[in-house]
């Protein structure tokens, strides 16, 4: 395999030449080479280099200076590596600036970002046309996509299991205005050409969706070979098991790259309000006509949003989900602010202790 099959282009090559010179002057490294992180297995990662695939790991210095896990090398990243010899693992010294980053709120009580993938151009939001069809979940995925700086595409999979496809298309278009909606059936080989239109040379396309939505099947279908394991879903509720256990890039025809991700039953948002504004643009536009600028759209006089619900311009379930997303993100923002205040106090205390002990934590680049 060649690095060019994983998205390396003249544009990246030109950028690399400029970045490498600046980085080497600051860091004192020489003979760095570009690579892309194509799979993450925990302690080690798989890289594609100019010479083919190679195992690698972050340098001790890189791990020391990065205190945010979301800034560590992730699948999709272009990185700078050195190869001490022809046998040892490659050493990752730096991550090149990312042009996009797909994130979510990490599971657990702590407010922190969990990075899913980077340098993605298009995100396929896969939703199966069976019992697991859920527009509220699709809205969450749209928020994640818009906030990540990628182009979303709604993919309605398993159309052979649906009796009223047109109605489902209308529902999807209703919550994703202006976003392409593609109906496919890998079993019947329908919709492939529409998907392949997004697989242009050098492009990276990621797939996300709940377990059992058919992401791994789509990867195999578009690749023309069984590169991913697949499992059947339970017939009674259409729920699937986590077939994909790690993130990995797969090169396909036309020199595009596909990224499969583990299924997410629950998607906790990591958002800066950009994604909400895009996803619920119809509601935010109408909200500008509310009598009060701080209207919560819950019983206030002169609320244009509630009026739109009463007249049928907006669905009540969509507005309720919009309110839920706002509450969730407001709660997340408060937790993040509390964490930053605590980190600030900890840093101040640590700094005083460092001064007393006569050493500093600064790392020279």
From TrEMBL:
Binding site for GTP: 157-160, 209-217
Cofactor: Zn(2+)
Region (Disordered): 327-365
UniProt entry keywords in alphabetical sequence: Cytoplasm, GTP-binding, Hydrolase, Metal-binding, Nucleotide-binding, Ribosome biogenesis, RNA-binding, rRNA-binding, Zinc
Gene Ontology terms: biological process: ribosomal small subunit biogenesis
GO CC field: cytoplasm
Pfam families in UniProt: RsgA_GTPase
InterPro entries attached to this UniProt entry: G_CP_dom, P-loop_NTPase, Ribosome_biogen_GTPase_RsgA, RsgA_GTPase_dom
Domain CP-type G: 112-267
Domain of life, source organism: Bacteria
GO MF assignments: GTP binding; GTPase activity; metal ion binding; rRNA binding
CDD domains: YjeQ_EngC
Residues reported to bind Zn(2+): 290, 295, 297, 303
Top EC group: hydrolase
EC number: 3.6.1.-
Subcellular location: Cytoplasm
EngC GTPase domain residues: 118-265
PROSITE patterns, per database record: ENGC_GTPASE, G_CP
CC cofactor note: Binds 1 zinc ion per subunit.
Family, as annotated: Belongs to the TRAFAC class YlqF/YawG GTPase family. RsgA subfamily.
Assembly notes: Monomer. Associates with 30S ribosomal subunit, binds 16S rRNA.
Described function: One of several proteins that assist in the late maturation steps of the functional core of the 30S ribosomal subunit. Helps release RbfA from mature subunits. May play a role in the assembly of ribosomal proteins into the subunit. Circularly permuted GTPase that catalyzes slow GTP hydrolysis, GTPase activity is stimulated by the 30S ribosomal subunit.
HAMAP family hit by this protein: GTPase_RsgA (MF_01820)
NCBIfam families, sorted: ribosome small subunit-dependent GTPase A
Annotated protein name in UniProt: Small ribosomal subunit biogenesis GTPase RsgA
Organism: Paenibacillus kribbensis
Highest classification ranks of the organism: Bacteria, Bacillati, Bacillota, Bacilli, Bacillales
Protein's gene: rsgA
